[in-house]
Amino acid sequence: MSAPGYPGSPNHPPYPQPGQSAPPYPVPAGGYPGDPSQAPPPGFSMGYHQGQPPVMYQPGPAPGPGPDYGGQSMGMSPAPAPVGVPPGLEYLTQIDQILIHQKVELLEAFIGFETNNQYEIKNSLGQKIYKAKEKNDCCTRNCCGSLRSFDMTIKDNMDREVIRLIRPFRCVSCWCPCCLQEMEVQAPPGTTVGFIKQDWHPFLPKFSIQGPEGETLLKLEGPCFACNCCGDVNFELTGKDGGPSIGRISKQWSGLLKEVFTDTDNFGIQFPMDLDVKMKAVLMGACFLIDFMFFEKVGEANQRSSVFS
């Protein structure tokens, strides 16, 4: 009795019988595949659509140990960190813009009770790359309002704290130039990589983006009236001596209902791709400081008016 052939292939030769040698696989006629010398170069398009490639997520937690594989983890190890880049910030070297979305707090929206602000930090494709949460006590939040001091932790998708922002209590009056707003940025926590300090000006919101030694590296300047009435508010980023804009922090219009009844804000940050990754982290801190200084108090006032009206 002859051995059965491959299912669905009546003309295919049967399996070899025990003791018989199997015929070799057919040799390709030439060219790729089969001829390594004619393989396409790395990055060669294999016919897929070549649009803007999606930026990868931050590496997530590796799966647990696999019992069928000797107890070894089956996750993929992250690539080694570039030299001089704080751990957890490797992803920032690949992008030139990020989006920051404040999460809606229902308790705060309905009764006006101030809670810790929480944010999602995303890339230009809407993929979450970091998350941020304010840390302070209830009394500080509800008594000091938008001027309150806080620590803010920024974590990656592996729940590792990669950035810490420290904001002390300061005044915002233009008549107090000795006690202006500032924020310290640490990456990783415990290692200072820069500061954001408000520059005194009677009308314009101006800030210095400083390095770890307090040296000014960049400047931020906003409009005379930081109010987004049906439009975006842009804070332009320039070199330390001014000049043309090289980036910006934009408070984006969130829609009438959100702007009136909540203090939930959306921001976009644009910066040069080759900017030092530590300065990118400091610009993230500048965005949060701007939110608290100019847009948090607007939301608080709207909430109080809606509650007591």
TrEMBL record:
InterPro entries recorded for this chain? Scramblase, Tubby-like_C
Q: Which stretches does UniProt call biased (Pro residues)?
A: 10-27
Identify the domain of life.
Eukaryota
**Where in this protein does the record put region Disordered?**
1-81
Q: What's a GO cellular component annotated to this UniProt protein? A: plasma membrane
Instruction: List the Gene Ontology MF annotations in alphabetical order.
Output: phospholipid scramblase activity
What keywords were assigned to this record? Calcium, Lipoprotein, Palmitate
Does the entry feature the keyword Lipoprotein, yes or no?
A: yes
Pfam families given in the database record: Scramblase
Q: Which cofactor does it need?
A: Ca(2+)
Family, per entry: Belongs to the phospholipid scramblase family.
Q: What does this protein do?
A: May mediate accelerated ATP-independent bidirectional transbilayer migration of phospholipids upon binding calcium ions that results in a loss of phospholipid asymmetry in the plasma membrane.
Name of protein: Phospholipid scramblase
Native species of this protein? Xiphophorus maculatus (Southern platyfish)
